[in-house]
Amino acid sequence: MGSIITLLKIYRHPRMLTFAFPPALRRRRLALGGALFLAFDALMMGVGVAVVTRGQHLGAAAALAALGAGVSTLLAWALVRPPKAALVDGALRIEAAHRHLVLDQKALRDARIVELDLSTAPHDTLPKPLLKRSWWSTGDAMGWQIDGRGEPVFCAITRIGPALRIESGNGTLLWTPSDPAAVAQALREAAGAR
Asked: Treating both helix axes as pointing N-terminal to C-terminal, what angle do 58-80 and 25-52 enclose, rounded to 10 degrees?
C-alpha cells in the first residue's frame, strides 16, 4: 500500500489519481543540445547582422538573437514534455506527444493487463522507435506507433525497462510507469469498482 501512495498523487478531484513516469533522460539531453545549438545559431546570426550593418542595427541584431533563444527554449520544452496518466472516475486517460488515449471502466474491465520488461521483450512486440537505436535516437516512444508486426500501439515509454501492456477494444497501450505492479493493481481495482 505504501508504494501505491508514493506512486499516486491525489489532487483536489477526490476520484482522480495520477501516475508518475520515470524521467526520459536521453530525450532531455537531446532536446537541450538542440536548443543550445539553435540559440547559438541565432546569436551568430545576430552578430552577423551587427557586423554587416557596421553596428547601425544593433537592436535588430539583439532582437534576432533573443527571438532565436526564445524559440529554441519553447521547442525544447515541447520536446521534453513528459507523458501524463490519470485515473479519473474509473477511466484511464493517457497523454503522450500531444496525443490522447482513453480507456473507460468497461474497456479496463475487459482489458488484458500484462507486466513485462521491455529489455527482454520480443522485438516484434516493440514499437519501431525502440528497434533502431542510435546515438541520436531518444530511446523512448510517445503517441501512436507501429510495432514490429505492423500493429498500432499507443506508447508512453520513457525508458527501456519494466512496463505494462494493456490490450483492450480501444487499442493496445504500452507504457512505463514508475511502479508497474502497483499501477496494474490500481487499474484492476478501478475496473472492478462499480
From this structure: 170
